[in-house]
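FORM 12-B: Structure-to-Sequence Request
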């Protein structure tokens, strides 16, 4: 049975250049070494045995899951700098709670950013990931209410598109991505810098049945835990939490279960699963399954708005105006979630379905808790100390090469 190891080594030998390898999170979105030689070293903190077993037997074939930054049940084949249109039906009731994606609020092929000039009128595209979802409500709200700067539009990624591909090619000027993803991308020489927080709290949870003896990551000793696979925020949180608890590969059984957390936990296939507070935990509750969602308390930074250092230097006023617009959208969503739901209906296909709206309402309520800090504010700056802690934890766990955390974020464009 596959077991977890924290040795710092490559999980799987690189696939041949002819074979399109599925995109692992934080690899910059490129599929093969031929496409992006500098970005294809994907270090995963696990033994070759576990990596081979998890990656050789995927649950399905890959579609990206929101903010997990990994591949979703259907393993994606990525092609660098290529555009794809989403293939997945939006808002499927079975996966809505766990899936986060993108807003269909922009043209399928938006105009690229202007190469000259600066200021608020500079054209820019904000890259939102994958299928339309209520978790992007603040962007929908500020767009619908006319709050985006002139020339700034929203664009969704295709199901087979890499996270940073369009940003690197200049097709997008902003991207919504995890702080941990940004840090790993920078460790692989991607020019990406966080300019504002989107989630103020890290959403990954260890989910167990209500009567389980497991109370923390330390209690996983002698138990099994399921997660989609060795990628994404689920994986990073589990690796770092187990390492902090002093657990070894001989003490915990880790299973790759795809996006089947409910079935795997309820059937007893695993003793615990790793998921999201605003996705998986919400779905369990909606299904009437009594569970506990345990905060793993990992020093990781979740979703941010990011751009490239080059674009920020060339168009500082556009970056400032975009950060201000995001904060306005967040504040409006928190203050009036019903308005946010109504607006989202214009962007999310099939949103008129009663079950879809009910699911969206539950997910939005849980997501709103992630939008605010302890003081209930959406305007707080990015915390350099938190990023330093994240960099140290990820380096210690073998998730990144040495990287300058201070250079991965800036508060220079956040107007008080």
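FORM 12-B RESPONSE
SEQUENCE OUT:
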């Amino acid at each position: 049975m596959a077991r977890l190891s924290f040795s710092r080594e490559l999980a799987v030998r690189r696939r041949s250049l002819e074979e399109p390898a599925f995109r692992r999170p934080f690899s910059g979105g490129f599929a093969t070494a031929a496409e992006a030689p500098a970005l294809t070293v994907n270090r995963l903190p696990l033994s070759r045995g576990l990596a081979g077993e998890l990656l050789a037997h995927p649950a399905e074939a890959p579609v990206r899951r929101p903010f997990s930054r990994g591949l979703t049940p259907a393993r994606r084949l990525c092609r660098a700098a290529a555009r794809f249109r989403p293939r997945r039906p939006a808002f499927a009731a079975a996966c809505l709670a766990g899936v986060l994606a993108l807003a269909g609020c922009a043209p399928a092929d938006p105009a690229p950013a202007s190469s000259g000039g600066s200021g608020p009128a500079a054209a820019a595209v904000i890259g939102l990931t994958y299928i339309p979802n209520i978790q992007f409500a603040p962007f929908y709200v500020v767009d619908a209410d006319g709050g985006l700067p002139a020339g700034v539009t929203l664009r969704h990624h295709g199901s087979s598109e890499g996270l940073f591909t369009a940003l690197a090619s200049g097709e997008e000027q902003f991207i919504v991505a995890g702080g941990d993803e940004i840090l790993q991308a920078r460790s692989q020489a991607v020019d990406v810098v966080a300019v504002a927080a989107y989630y103020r709290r890290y959403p990954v949870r260890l989910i167990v049945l209500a009567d389980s003896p497991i109370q923390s990551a330390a209690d996983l000793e002698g138990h099994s835990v399921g997660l989609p696979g060795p990628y994404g925020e689920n994986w990073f949180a589990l690796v770092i939490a187990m390492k902090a608890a002093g657990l070894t590969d001989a003490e915990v059984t880790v299973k790759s279960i795809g996006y089947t957390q409910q079935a795997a936990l309820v059937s007893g296939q695993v003793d615990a699963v790793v998921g999201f507070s605003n996705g998986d935990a919400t779905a369990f509750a909606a299904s009437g399954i009594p569970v506990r969602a345990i905060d793993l308390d990992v020093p990781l930074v979740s979703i941010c708005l990011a751009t490239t250092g080059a674009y920020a230097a060339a168009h500082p006023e556009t970056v400032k105006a975009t950060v201000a617009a995001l904060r306005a959208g967040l504040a409006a969503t928190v203050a009036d979630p019903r308005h946010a739901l109504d607006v989202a209906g214009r962007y999310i296909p099939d949103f008129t379905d009663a079950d879809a709206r009910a699911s969206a309402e539950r997910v939005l309520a849980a997501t709103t808790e992630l939008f605010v800090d302890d003081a209930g504010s959406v305007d707080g700056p990015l915390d350099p100390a938190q990023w330093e802690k994240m960099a140290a934890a990820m380096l210690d766990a073998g998730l990144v090469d040495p990287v300058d955390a201070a250079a991965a974020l800036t508060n220079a464009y956040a107007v008080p």
